[in-house]
Design brief:
Structural class: alpha/beta
Distance between the termini: 80 Å
Radius of gyration: 28 Å
Shape: elongated
Number of helices: 5
């Protein structure tokens, strides 16, 4: 076999792909194929990231996940929670949150429980709660609230049933009452702590009984589900 024939054989062995340029078919070496494929894949990923930088799964998680906070630990938005309907409980407790930006909870129609307890929030305004139309329970336990104007809960949280304010500076159910009181169908709690594993099961229309501490004084008898004459028991619906 001539030297030219040997060279052609080696070229064919190392060639795995072909590249078409202006109608001409050009063989590609093995390493060139890998480099070209990697570059193409990187280009696709870069385009997807540029178009969806603020969307899951490209969004970078931070201390306020599934929401986003700035450097001062102020909640700016909850876009991911808005897109994922599974977030029935928005878990933002014990994250060092100091405040909530206006509109941060916009369009969170699926959230039933907002857990903000054990943070450093000192004030809450009505504009900061816009979007929580179907939220039934808000936990504000153990923050630094000096006062709470009950007016802020009237419009943005029309389905609110329970408000926990235990362990704040001067924000108690008594002080809230002095400022006009909450809507008639909202229960204010400031002397007990409800620590059930799945808070979104509170006030869901089904009495969970004493299972895992739902039917307790601390949790107001499963958010009222275990009170009255027409109680729907958990065992009867499973």
């Amino acid at each position: 076999m001539t030297q030219d024939a040997l060279k052609d054989a080696r070229d064919r062995r190392n060639t795995r792909s072909k590249l078409v340029i202006d109608g001409m078919v050009l063989p590609m070496k093995r390493y060139a194929t890998a480099t070209y494929s990697s570059f193409s894949l990187l280009t696709i990923v870069l385009v997807l990231f540029m178009d969806n930088a603020d969307r899951y799964p490209f969004i970078a998680p931070n201390a306020c996940f599934p929401c986003e906070c700035d450097r001062d630990m102020v909640i700016q938005n909850c876009n991911l929670a808005k897109e994922v309907e599974a977030f029935r409980e928005l878990k933002l407790y014990s994250k060092g949150i100091t405040a909530i930006a206006d509109g941060a909870f916009a369009d969170l129609f699926t959230v039933r429980v907002l857990s903000l307890y054990n943070n450093s929030i000192s004030t809450i305004e009505q504009t900061q709660l816009q979007g929580l139309d179907n939220t039934k329970i808000i936990f504000l336990n153990f923050n630094k609230l000096e006062s709470l104007d009950p007016v802020i809960f009237v419009e943005p949280t029309q389905q609110l049933g329970y408000l926990w304010v235990t362990g704040n500076n001067n924000a108690t159910c008594e002080t809230v009452g002095r400022r006009g009181g909450l809507p008639d169908d909202v229960v204010c709690v400031d002397d007990t702590v409800c620590t059930v594993k799945l808070p979104y099961l509170l006030a869901d229309g089904i009495c969970n009984g004493e299972k895992d501490g739902y039917k307790t004084a601390e949790c107001h008898d499963d958010g009222g589900d275990c009170k009255g004459d027409n109680v729907r028991w958990y065992d009867s619906v499973v």
